[in-house]
Each structure stands twice: as structure tokens, then as C-alpha cells.
Design goal:
The chain is of the alpha/beta class. About 30% of the residues lie in helices and about 20% in strands. It has one domain: 3-Layer(aba) Sandwich (Rossmann fold). It has a six-stranded mixed β-sheet with strand order 3-2-4-1-5-6. The protein is globular.
Length: about 160
């Protein structure tokens, strides 16, 4: 199984609340670059789980606009910045097992994305994500642990 964990694109610093911070134009472009990279890899997704925060929703919109193979999109309230990585891990094990998902992507926030990679991988590495970066984890449902394959940012991609 492949689990992709993505941080939202660059967001505005000022908004009425943190949850309402929108993407900048650059943030939209960052998400599109990652979407193009995933399209070039011919990466399908059974489901994309997205934080309810505005910047994550806009990141998912821009990302999905570049993809052709996304079966399902769900807003997931437990992947906001202060949520618990262990709770997300437990949720993913349950839903991916029940739905037989093989390829999923989560669009979330720092610091949760770093904690989540540590939680999902056997070496518990906690990478720092630049905006719109995505980590790919080769995940073993039987062991309920995976291995970090790559962490890529829009700046690393040459299209």
C-alpha cells in the first residue's frame, strides 16, 4: 500500500482564524506542481483525505485539477495542525483495511504531517516539510508500519 502525506501549499499569514487562511498564488502553483509530478508517475488514488482548513482544501483542489485518477475525496476532521498522529494512524488502518484502499493521500499541516510520518514508519523519522511537500510511504498493512520512500518538495521537481 502507498500512503502519501502532503503539507498544504504556501498560505496567507493573515485571516480571521487559522482555519480560514487561504493559499497564496504561489501556494496554488506549488500544489499544481506536485499534482503534475504525481500525474507523470501515473499515481492513482483510491482516496484523498483533506483537512477541513481552507488552505488544505484549496491545496487538494489545485492538486486534483492536475490528476486524472482520483476515486474519492473526503474531508477528515482529525488531520488539522494539532491533531494526534496515533489517532490518524488508527483511523487509516481501520478505513484502509475495510475499504481495501491501496493508494491514499492526506493533505494536512505541520506539525501533524511530520508526526504522522514518524508514526507510520518503522524508523520513526520525523522530516520537516516545506510547503506543498509530499512524503511517500510504502506501507505494510499486516505490520501496520511502513518505510519512507521519498520526501519531495515543489522546488525539487523539474517538469
Amino acid at each position: 500500500m502507498q500512503i502519501f502525506v502532503m503539507r498544504h501549499g504556501q498560505a496567507e499569514m493573515v485571516a480571521p482564524t487559522d482555519a480560514l487562511r487561504p493559499l497564496t498564488e504561489n501556494g496554488v502553483e506549488e500544489a499544481k506542481v506536485i499534482g503534475q509530478w504525481l500525474r507523470e508517475k501515473n499515481q492513482p488514488f483510491d482516496c484523498i483525505f483533506v483537512s477541513p482548513y481552507t488552505r488544505a482544501q484549496q491545496t487538494a483542489d489545485a492538486l486534483i485539477s492536475q490528476l486524472s485518477n482520483v476515486a474519492n475525496r473526503q474531508t477528515l476532521k482529525i488531520i488539522t495542525p494539532e491533531d494526534n498522529a496515533k489517532d490518524v494512524h488508527d483511523y487509516l488502518d481501520a478505513v484502509c483495511g475495510a475499504e481495501q484502499y491501496q493508494n491514499i493521500l492526506l493533505v494536512s499541516h505541520m506539525p501533524l504531517v511530520s508526526y504522522l510520518v514518524a508514526e507510520l514508519t518503522s524508523d520513526h523519522a520525523m522530516p520537516i516539510f516545506q510547503t506543498a511537500s509530499v512524503a511517500q510511504i510504502e506501507y505494510d498493512m499486516d505490520k501496520m508500519l511502513g518505510e519512507l520512500i521519498t520526501l519531495i518538495s515543489p522546488n525539487d521537481i523539474k517538469l
